[in-house]
Amino acid sequence: MEKRVRYPLGQQNFRKVRESGSLYVDKTHYIPELMWTSDFIFLSRPRRFGKSLLLSTLESYFRGEKELFEGLAIYEEEKDWGRYPVLHFDMSRCNGQSAEGMRAFLFSQLKSYEQEYEIVAESNTDDVGVYFSSLIKAVSQKVGRKVVILIDEYDKGVTEIMDDPVRLEAMSIVLRAFYSQPKAMSKYVHFSMITGVTRFPNCTLFSGPNNYTDISLNENFAGICGITQQELQDNFSQGLRVLGERKGWSMEETVEELRLKYDSYRFTASHEMVYNPYSLLYVFTDNRLSNYWIKSGISKVFMKYLSDANFDLLELQDLWVNQARMEDIFRKDDNIPLLFQTGYLTIVDTRGDDLYRLAIPNGEVRSTLLEQLLPRYTGINENELPLKFHNLKEKLTHGDIDGWIRELQTIIAKIPSYLFTKPKKTEEEEDSELARISHLEATYHIIVNIIFQMLSVDARSEIAVSGGRIDMVAETLKYVYVMEFKLDGAPEEALRQIDDKGYHLSWNAEDRKVFKIGIVFSSTTRTISTWEFMEN
C-alpha cells in the first residue's frame, strides 16, 4: 500500500518538518548560491510564501545539523558542515504596536541568547543596539566562530502603524538601532539574511542598506520561495492523483485547474513562475479548491491602505511600471507598491532591464481582491457576490450560455458610468466617434476578462489568429466559448465575423464543444443588450 503523504500545514520549522516525516520541497540547492552572492542578503516575498521555513532551513544548515539534510541537494555537496552560532529573530512574534513593546520583545530575545551561550553582554542599557552589538561580539568570541544572524518579518513593527507618524518615528528609532548592528559588527558576522514583505531598499530602518544585497528581483532566486511547476510534479503526484479522482479530472485537467487557481506568481524577469505553497498544501489536505490564502488573514495594513485608495481597477490589467515604483514604500496616493509587495499583483512581462508589466496573478488572488473591491465598483452587496459568481461559474462550466450571459449582464449593469467615460483625446481624435467606440469596446473586453479570470476560467482577450484577432476566448474543461463583441450592433454580425475570419478553427480538433457567441453591448444601458450563439 502506498504510504500516505503528510503535508506540513502551517509548519515553518525545518527540524520539525524533517523529523515528522512531512513533505519538504527541497530548496537547499539555493544555499551555495546565497553564500556566493553575498554575506548580507535581503529577500522580499508576500506573506505565507515560505520565507520562515527558508530561514529555519538556513538555521539548521549553519548549526551543522547534517542528519536533517539527508537525501536533500545540499547533503552531498556540502563538505564542511561547520557549526556556527545562530541568532534567529522572528519579528512576527511581537505585536508590533508600540516602541516600548518592541524594545521589551527585543531585549527578551537578546537575553535568551545570552543565557543560551552562557555569556554576559552589555544588557545594563536601554539602548537595544548597544545590547545587540555586545551580544554579537561576545557570542563570536565565546564560540570562536563568526555569528549567523537571521531576521524574519523585519517589517512587522512598522507596517501596521505607518499612518501614525508619532508612533512610527518612535518605533523606527528602536528598530534602526537594532537592524544596523549586523553591518556595524560585520567583522564578527559570517552571514546575515533578512526577510519581509515591504521592499528593503527604500526603508529607513537601516543605516547603510547597500550592505545588504537585495535578491528579491534576482533571476537566480526566482523559485526560492513558492512551488515551481516541476516541483509540483515531482513532489505532489499522490495529491494530484487523489484530487483528480475526487473531482473526476484527468491528471492534465487537475494540473490545469491548479495552475489557473494558484500558479503564475512571478517575482523576477525570469519566466519561472511559482504556486502559492500555503494554498497548495491545504488543497491536497482538503481535496478541494478554495481561497485558502485569504482565509489565513488579510493584512491590516493592506485593508487600511486599500480602503482609502482611489484607483482604476481596469488599470490593473495592463500596468507598466519601473523598478523604483515596485520597490516604493506604501502610500495612499499610490497603491501599486502595496499590491505588488503583498502579492496581489505579479510580473507578467518585461521590457529592457527596468520596465515591468504587472497584473493579477491567478484565480485565488482575483477572487480575493475583487471580493474586496467589486462591491464598491458594482453596487452589488458584498453578501450577494459569492452567490452571483458561483452561479456564473456553474453555468459556464455546464454550458448554459443563456444563463451565464444573463448573470454577466446583471453584474455589468451595476458598474458605475465613470468607468465608461471617454478618455482624454488627442487633438486629432477630438471629434472622433471611432475613438469613443474603441474605448467603450476595450472597456467591456477588460471587464468581462476580469470577471472570468476571477472565476478561475481560462479567459484571453485579443487573440491573434490567421484571420485577425478574436475578441475573447473562454475555456472550461468541457467547453470553448469563442466570443466577438459589438457595440450597438447586431449579434448576427458578430457571428458572421467569427465564421468569415475562421476564429473558431483553432479548436476544431478539440474533444470539447466549441460555441461561437456574438455579444452586443449597449452604449446607453452600458451592459449586454442582446446575444446569439451557435455550436461549431
Q: What is the secondary structure topology, with strand pairs?
A:
Blueprint: H1 14-19, H2 30-37, E1 40-44, H3 51-62, H4 73-77, E2 86-90, H5 99-116, H6 128-143, E3 147-152, H7 156-159, H8 165-179, H9 181-184, E4 189-196, E5 213-214, E6 227-228, H10 229-235, H11 237-247, H12 251-262, E7 274-275, H13 277-286, H14 292-295, H15 300-308, E8 319-322, H16 323-326, H17 336-341, E9 346-351, E10 355-359, H18 363-378, H19 385-397, H20 401-413, H21 433-454, E11 458-465, E12 468-475, E13 479-487, H22 491-501, E14 513-521, E15 528-535
Parallel strand pairs: 1-4, 1-5, 2-3, 3-4, 13-14
Antiparallel strand pairs: 6-7, 8-10, 9-10, 11-12, 12-13, 14-15
List keywords for this structure.
536 residues; 22 helices; 15 strands; alpha/beta; single chain; five-stranded parallel beta sheet; five-stranded mixed beta sheet
Total E-strand runs: 15
Q: Categorize the overall geometry.
A: elongated
Helical element count? 22
Provide the structure class. alpha/beta
Query: Could you tell me the strand content as a percent range?
Result: 15-25%
User: What's the rounded overall pLDDT mean?
Assistant: 85
